[in-house]
Amino acid sequence: MSSIKSASATQEGSRASATSALLLLLHMRTFVALILVFGFFALAAPNFLSAANMLIISKHVALNALLAIGMTFVIIAGGIDLSVGSIVGLCAMVAGYLVLYGIDLGIGWSVQFNTLEICLIVLLAGVFIGFVNGMLITKLNVAPFIATLGTLYVARGAALLFSDGRTFPNLAGNPEYGSDTFKLIGSGTLFGFPLSIWIMAVVALLAAYLATRTPLGRHIYAVGGNERGAALSGVNVDRTKLFVYMFSGLCAALVGLIISSQLQASHPATGETFELNAIAAAVLGGTSMSGGRGRIGGTIIGAFVIGILADGMIMMGISSFWQTVIKGLVIIAAVVVDQIQQRLQARVILQQHSN
């Protein structure tokens, strides 16, 4: 009888060890995916490991990571922001318009701005659109998917109206007004690295500190985990939701500034489908679509996976249509793996309680 019990205990111990190992693998899935994707393209894509290509990838990753950081906060709080790509396009057009024309007062005079003032106006525009999203969701009780989908169309239409669908070219700026340094935002370097990477690093560090070291960060997780419970415990749910959408708008405005500066041109179609990359990076990095769980560090790694995947497929000559399909499959796979991880964790907790 004792031998049977011993064998049963051994089997349960083996299952527990296997489950723990699987949970550890699932927890590190983003890092594993990064190694696999990087290794595959290093072998399969010509010149993938060249310094020039690594620099290009890092610039693309910085843009996607900035959007994904804002998206991470939104998803952790139990929402979604489909408007970030359109906010990028609109803010890029606002930046281009201010660099070229300033603001016409309609009396034969115009107000011109220097680079810092242009940046502040564009960032405020992104925050304002995020504020509108937040107000629609918190005060009018519009579902986040519907509210941000509507904003997606409004912002994209406004970007097209800015120039009747045309591009604002030659954003070199004017030394007389102090706007000639605008191009440095996207093309400037610091210690050999592009400024866009430094901007992404600073935003990521601030976001990680906010998420892990401040009451607001705890409130964001609480709202996404159990909104009613958070409200009963004294958390201002509406204010917390308003913040995450405003922060997401700020990140999107930063991306719009960087892209228009890099290209020295603004096009109303800038940022199309960027929201898909941001969602994919956040979910791949471990952010749960059901809310209440996610890490900024995981999102950054997820952004690297998406960036390397996108650039690697381009270098291999894979059709853009197939690239879209593969990105969609990555999002589905990330959500499925996240669900598997949650079920395994729940099973482990249940077993621990039963023992």
TrEMBL record:
State one molecular function term (GO): transmembrane transporter activity
Cellular localisation: Cell membrane
The cross-references to CDD domains, in alphabetical order and at most eight, read:
TM_PBP1_transp_AraH_like
Which keywords, in A-to-Z order, does the entry hold?
Answer: Cell inner membrane, Cell membrane, Membrane, Transmembrane, Transmembrane helix, Transport
Record-linked InterPro entries = ABC_transp_permease
Q: How does it sit in the membrane?
A: Multi-pass membrane protein
Q: According to the lineage, what is the superkingdom?
A: Bacteria
Entry's Gene Ontology cellular component terms: plasma membrane
Q: What is its main location?
A: membrane
Q: Name one Pfam family in it.
A: BPD_transp_2
Q: Which residues cross the membrane?
A: 30-49, 61-80, 86-103, 115-136, 142-163, 184-211, 242-259, 296-314
Name it: ABC transporter permease
